[in-house]
Design a protein that fits this description.
Number of strands: 21
Radius of gyration: 25 Å
CATH class of the largest domain: Alpha Beta
Bound molecules: adenosine-5'-triphosphate
Oligomer: single chain
Strand order of the largest sheet: 6-7-8-3-9-10
Domain ABC transporter: 3-237
InterPro entries: AAA+_ATPase, ABC_SmlMolc_Importer, ABC_transporter-like_ATP-bd, ABC_transporter-like_CS, CysA_C, Mo/tungstate-bd_C_term_dom, P-loop_NTPase, Sulph_transpt1
CATH superfamily of the largest domain: P-loop containing nucleotide triphosphate hydrolases
GO molecular function, one term: ATP binding
Order of helices and strands: EEEHEEEHHHEHEHEEHHEEEEEEEEEEE
Distance between the termini: 39 Å
Number of domains: 2
CATH topology of the largest domain: Rossmann fold
Shape: elongated
Strand content: 25-35%
Structural class: alpha+beta
Organism: Azospirillum picis
Number of helices: 8
Protein name: Sulfate transport system ATP-binding protein
Length: 371
């Protein structure tokens, strides 16, 4: 079942929560809606579910207008962050609920319901806990019951709103992997909301990055991470250093004091360079301009991080903990940007970002490598 979202707009009073959003979700895809708090993810999901009515635009399920249909008739399975299981019902009865409340004419026979529920409980690996009550389950187990319950009605579309949000990091990771397997086994078109970039990148076939009621970019996890369309996407998808700069004569220079950062083929003007901490290299200080001062070195699990003051801009640098970090606070170092993206400032038409071409050798030396 593919889903077509066309020019969806939603206002709450004077506030525009969704601003003409277009999105096509292919049949059997697992899509993540990713964005910061308030970007409109949940509102979009609720509109797809039929729990919210848009002010403008269309939602098509398999080419048919879904907005004309009552949520009950959309055949949508919904899983919320806070597993709203029925506390007075066993696991089995919770999963069976959606089938048992169907009108008599559409309700499967008791034995058919029992078979389906048992099959789903096996799938979510809870068949041994069928007679327990929600209060006797862990958070992760409750969330798996919620999923089994959503799947029991054989939905055409599965919608999940921060399904693992309330769980601790380890359980989240386990459930993620498990949801991916489940999705691959069942192939139901699925959309999940998250503000956790790792969750989106790890789990989804495609990631929809949202900001302020708009879609910034849609792409595979690799595309949005490696070829971010906007500075927002770059920044949101991982640790990033943001450096104010200007482009002139094929070079990118620090805006503050003019130190060269790399080469670039693009128009002159103010710009911002984005660089990941692991794409900055520190070398023994040379006698060129590209020199900074190490302010702090500290270890965080698998990484050694350093903060470097580079002409007034504080840069965060990361190297694997098993690589030696030969510098300490107070050392003078040469800063080499190995990779980065240059986003022209003050261009309303959002042109393509430019790849930073790193210098090798002296900071004013030749450009040797094109990314
Ligand atoms: N019923 C409502 N009435 C008024 N404003 C609302 C309502 N629902 C959502 N909003 C506003 O619309 C915007 C988008 O909300 P939405 O819940 O879609 O964001 P989100 O990206 O899912 O955020 P979060 O990650 O915090 O859940 C927010 O600014 C929110 O305050």
């Amino acid at each position: 079942m593919n889903i077509d979202i066309q020019a969806i707009t939603k206002r709450f009073g004077a506030y525009t929560a969704l601003n003409s959003v277009d999105l096509r979700i292919g049949s059997g895809e697992l899509v993540a809606l990713l964005g910061p708090s308030g970007s409109g993810k949940t509102t979009l999901l609720r509109i797809i579910a039929g729990l919210e009515t848009p002010d403008g635009g269309t939602v098509l399920f398999g080419g048919e207008d879904a907005l004309q249909r009552h949520p009950r008739d959309r055949q949508v399975g919904f899983v919320f962050q806070h597993y709203a299981l029925f506390r007075h019902m066993t696991v089995f009865d919770n999963v069976a609920f959606g089938l048992q409340v169907r009108p008599r004419s559409q309700r499967p026979a008791k034995s058919v319901i029992a078979d389906r529920v048992n099959e789903l409980l096996r799938l979510v690996q809870l068949d041994k806990l069928a007679t327990r009550y929600p209060s006797q389950l862990s958070g992760g187990q409750r969330q798996r019951v919620a999923l089994a319950r959503a799947l029991a009605i054989e939905p055409r579309v599965l919608l999940l709103d921060e399904p693992f949000g309330a769980l601790d990091a380890k359980v989240r990771k386990e459930l993620r992997r498990w949801l991916r397997h489940l999705h691959d086994a069942m192939g139901i078109t699925s959309v999940f909301v998250t503000h956790d970039q790792e969750e989106a990148l790890e789990l989804a076939d495609r990631v929809v990055v949202m900001s302020q009621g708009r879609i910034e970019q849609v792409g595979t996890p690799t595309e949005v991470y490696r070829q971010p369309a906007t500075a927002f996407v770059y920044d949101f998808l991982g640790d990033a250093n943001r450096i104010e700069c200007r482009v002139e004569g094929g070079q990118v220079r620090l805006a503050s004091q003019g130190q060269p950062l790399g080469g670039v083929s693009g128009q002159a003007g103010p710009a911002v360079v984005y660089v990941r901490p692991h794409d900055i290299e520190l070398q023994p200080a040379g006698d060129d301009q590209a020199t900074g001062t190490v302010r702090r070195v500290y270890e965080v699990g698998p990484l050694v991080r350093a903060e470097v003051d580079y002409a007034g801009t504080l840069l965060e640098v990361a190297v694997p903990a098993d690589d030696r970090m030969p510098f300490r606070a107070g050392d003078r170092v040469r800063v080499v940007l190995r990779r980065g993206l240059v986003f022209p400032a003050d261009r309303p038409d959002r042109p393509e970002p430019m790849a930073l071409v790193p210098f090798r050798g002296g900071a004013s030396g030749p450009v040797v490598q094109r990314l």
